[in-house]
Amino acid sequence: MNIKQHKKMYKAGKQWLVASLMAITAGLMMGTTVHADTTSTSQATSQVETTQVAQQPVATANTITSQAAATNTANYGNLDHYSVTTSDSAEDGHLFVSGWHATDASQTEPYHYYLIYDNTTNKEINRQKATSPVVNRDDVQRAYPNVANSLHSGFSEKLYIPYAVVANGDRVSVISRYSDDSIKGEGNHTDYWFGPLSFDQGNHGHLDSVKVNNGQITVAGWNATNKNFKRPNHFIIAYDATQHREIARKIANTVIRNDVANAYPTITDAIESGFSTSFDLNPAFLTDEIQFVSRWSASTNGDQDYVDYWFAPQRLFNNEGNYGSLDAYRLSDSKAPDYARFVISGWHAASASMVETHPFIIVFDRTLNKEIGRSPINAPVTRNDVAKAYPNVYGSERSGFELNIDIPYSSFGHQISVVARYSDDAVNGEGNHTDYWFAPMTFDMGNYAHLDQATTTNGQINVQGWHATNQVAQGGVRRYHTIIAYDVTKGREIDRQSVDLDDIYHGTIRNDVARVYPHVFNADISGFNVNFNLAPEFAHDQIRFISRWSATADANENFVDYWFAPQTFSYQSPNTQPTQPQQPTNNQSIEGVGEGHGHLDKWTVFSSNGQANRAAINVQGWRVSQFANSKSYHDLIVWDNSTNREWSHVTISNPMMDFNTIQRPDIAAIYGNQYPAALNSGFNTSIILGDGFPWGHDFSLIVRYATDENGSNPSDLTFHLGRINSNMITDNF
């Protein structure tokens, strides 16, 4: 127990008087301490810097004895908690109070009232009869077992308090009164005074996040203050701290913030202090320090009678950021006279792309000091890996590219640079622009080849290998590929076989060679797989095979040769018909040919009833592509190579639906950095073959990404299935 001196207020007639007295106070004096994450305090209209919040204790109740206490009537109490919020009234807010008041006088003074007394103006400002149910307080009964109403002494009440009192910071007391007057709470009564209470007069705020997306900057945070009384219009202002001018202002979108209300219980609208507001991108956001301002104003345009909270200035973007990588490149035949197709992929991230919004790729011949190719990037590729590495560089999440540019054969052997550009000129890529020059490369004129095998079977020599060189472009393109068998011992040619460049199923397509020699334009079609009849007269002679690229079909003019090392062969009498290279069979695993990478893990022709006219093909595998996100129509096509037409297809996904996509974490682990959609690259679906299916024809499965349902701008990966016969049908898969 503590002996304290109090100022007791009592009423004489209509006047409130103050008297000093000594009182013995006891009770459960429980205070509440509130912690906030961040806050700042300052004068209402001055600049406020965000700092770490100190603990702000809520004032505990002061026990003020009443007249009943002076006559030795038991009278105890405590205000456990109080807070303020807005209400449906234009002038009054809610003051929530909870605590307890135990007194023997409640037996003869049964009517419970609450009074709010303004100690600043020395007048009563509100009186309400208790309306909330009584709260049982076992703890109070244990402390005061001999006080009549100690068990039922608890209260939790919502009172009205003028907003002006809170906003002005008046110090008020809450009085708990028991009275024998059921109408006005006068007559005989016993009071218990709590307080004085104080209300937060600071200006607090925090900027939680600033994010850039889809051409807008979204600012989120909160600003709580009682100084916004009669200033209901909330604005967020973007201020250029470098040029000292306002850039833009927007009406704040209110966000409910229970966390702020818990941290600042004596700010009336703390729960509605949150905001999330978006601004259109402006060049100043790129280069200058930006300071966001939260403003509460009495005017609808925010220019008069306002209170501001200034968040710390910050540079939103690394305006000097200009980064890039050329992930992969290769040359291939463009079919255009005197030009090769240059296929490139990579990324270019620059904050300048905020205002220089049009991306281009330029190919520059350093040897001749002139540009030799240019193309706009019409479909930027999502690069989450770049966004993670450069989060403060604008546009990094859409910085990827993959495209083809035709370049002249005359550039072969020269030093070449690829230039990634952002420009404000959508047509030609000139005007204001920001360039990133990738490391120079040279499309060398080497002559590369390998003889994979030369084996004899049934009187024939099967010769397989590849031959790639940029020399085929010198002096006119050499599009004809021929393999010659030459007898070194007898000094004469034995035979020659033409390589069908369109026969992708017998080894012509060599993606493995293209990966090793991306700078050689015919590397992807460098393969050959041919047969020669071995006559007895050539047995045991030294034979050299020659791979020849020529400008003429007979391979006699304008050619470039690669001579493989000489070999000798034993003659074997043919006892069966010469065999062709074995084609894929039902259930065989197949590697894809085309853009990206992929594998057909399993394929099966099946029918539930064994009937050929009810057959379907189940295909299981995966495909990664740079266009998996930008080309949203994903189809699997059964292609009839014998008639060169589509037979049937199934749609895996399009913008209106999304199904049959299989997650492949194994593929994501390998290709995830290069191909953002690698995790969802799997497929497992069945395609109906239907009546009239041409059994015995040669078929391929095409996995296609396209820009519309008609298959426009396709990006294909092809799996050769070979001949599909009815004897392949099974009843399960």
From TrEMBL:
Lineage: Bacteria, Bacillati, Bacillota, Bacilli, Lactobacillales
InterPro entries: KxYKxGKxW
Keywords in alphabetical order: Signal
Comp. bias intervals (Low complexity): 572-589
Signal sequence extent: 1-36
Domain of life of the source: Bacteria
Chain positions covered by the region annotation Disordered: 571-590
Keyword Membrane: no
Organism: Limosilactobacillus panis
UniProt protein name: KxYKxGKxW signal peptide domain-containing protein
Presence of the UniProt keyword Nucleotidyltransferase in the record: no
